[in-house]
């Protein structure tokens, strides 16, 4: 199977294994990735890692599939299936699969090699990106007349600002790992071959915390982007209050009874 899941109790690693196509995504693999992430969303697992096997994260939309869509009948059938009317709630499947899903739990991208075109869009969909020092992003679809349709034109400027997003998107140039880190496209750079292990270590660190608060803060950060401050504070309050009611006061009781004293947080 080209999409598989390595499962522990708390952290699932979702693996795309199509190395002969540098993990490019066609219809079958898009749907398989969506199924994997929906399984994660409905599971007791707390954090997911998204990793491409074989040395590349993802080379984007499968251009061999795209080439078949020069047939008008096939093209209309394909895009009708992925229709996303303005004003509608996010549909489940984009051309690259899970790029339109809005999950309630964190996903960490473990990026080795190429994460280009739609593969870059999948990396930007993740909450956190861990990149190998030899990895790179780029809107490589620029050279073939393929647009960003899996969130790239939306998420890229939110991470790096409009001017830098335009420069990266319109030139289609290679953006290497260190630059990604410098401009906010990656949160951690690690040696070649270590992205998965490093991402899983971060995932386990997140998973050991009380999860109501983790998810409430994640939700507030995502939901309040672009809101006026007063409206954003209302959303933060509503999200945070529910989490505190359900687990925050209990956590405070653990601290009162001695947990975390002396800076020891190994048993929280």
Considering the chains and any ligands shown, give keywords for the structure:
2 domains; globular; six-stranded mixed beta sheet; alpha/beta; 2-enoyl-CoA Hydratase, Chain A, domain 1; three-stranded mixed beta sheet; single chain; 268 residues
If you had to describe this structure to a student in words, what would you say it looks like?
The protein has ten helices and nine strands. It is globular, with a radius of gyration of 20 Å. It has two domains: 3-207, 2-enoyl-CoA Hydratase, Chain A, domain 1 (Alpha-Beta Complex); 211-263. The chain has helices at 27-41, 63-68, 72-81, 118-125, 152-160, 162-171, 177-183, 195-207, 211-223, 229-256, and strands at residues 3-7, 11-16, 47-52, 107-111, 114-116, 128-132, 136-138, 175-176, 188-190. The model has no long low-confidence stretch (mean pLDDT 91). The chain is α/β, with parallel strands linked by helices and 268 residues long. The protein has a six-stranded mixed β-sheet with strand order 1-2-3-4-6-9, with helices on both faces. Strands 5-7-8 form a three-stranded mixed β-sheet.
């Amino acid at each position: 199977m080209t999409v598989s899941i390595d499962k522990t109790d708390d952290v699932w690693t979702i693996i795309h294994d199509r190395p002969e196509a540098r993990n490019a995504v066609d219809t079958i693999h898009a749907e398989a990735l969506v199924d994997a992430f929906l399984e994660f969303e409905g599971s007791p697992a707390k954090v997911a890692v998204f990793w491409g096997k074989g040395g590349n994260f993802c080379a984007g939309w499968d251009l061999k599939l795209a080439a078949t869509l020069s047939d008008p009948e096939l093209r209309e059938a394909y895009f009708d299936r992925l229709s996303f009317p303005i004003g509608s709630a996010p549909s489940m499947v984009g051309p690259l699969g899970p790029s339109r899903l809005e999950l309630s739990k964190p996903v960490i991208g473990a990026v080795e090699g190429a994460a280009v075109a739609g593969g870059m869009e999948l990396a930007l969909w993740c909450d956190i990106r861990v990149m190998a020092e030899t990895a790179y992003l780029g809107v490589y679809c620029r050279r073939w007349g393929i647009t960003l349709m899996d969130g790239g034109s939306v998420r890229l400027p939110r991470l790096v600002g409009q001017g830098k997003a335009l420069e990266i998107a319109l030139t289609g140039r290679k953006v290497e790992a260190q630059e990604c880190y410098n401009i906010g496209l990656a949160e951690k750079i690690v040696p070649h071959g270590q992205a998965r292990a490093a991402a899983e270590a971060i995932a386990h660190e997140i998973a050991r915390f009380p999860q109501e608060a983790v998810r409430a803060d994640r939700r507030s950060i995502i939901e309040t982007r672009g809101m006026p401050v007063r409206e954003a504070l209302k959303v933060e309050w509503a999200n945070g209050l529910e989490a505190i009611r359900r687990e925050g006061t209990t956590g405070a009781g653990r601290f009162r009874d001695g947990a975390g004293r002396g800076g020891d947080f190994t048993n929280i």
